[in-house]
Amino acid sequence: MEGNGTSVAILVGVWATFALDVFSTLNSSPQTTEINVDRRQESLMYWVKIGSAVAVAGGITATAISGKPWPAIATVGVAAGMYYLYCHAKKRGLERQGEPGTEQTGGLWS
Q: Could you count the other beta carbons within 10 Å of the beta carbon of residue 60?
């Protein structure tokens, strides 16, 4: 099994999915970031950084335990891609300030 790349494919798939799950757990979508960045940029990007760190730490831990580089490679790749997507969403949102978002002031939690 090791020689045909199946183990590598499984490790990359599992740990890439882990990294995506971390972002799903800790962050709104890039679209939500774009729509609401003018109202809560600091909070949105803070959690993107936390998500990146948790994803990469998980991959590094799995690499240390398994002795294989693939979990770290998968999580670093996904975290870098997701970080880029959130930064791109932030940029687009800041360029479109003034358009309606999904959050309103004066509501229950204001």
A: 14
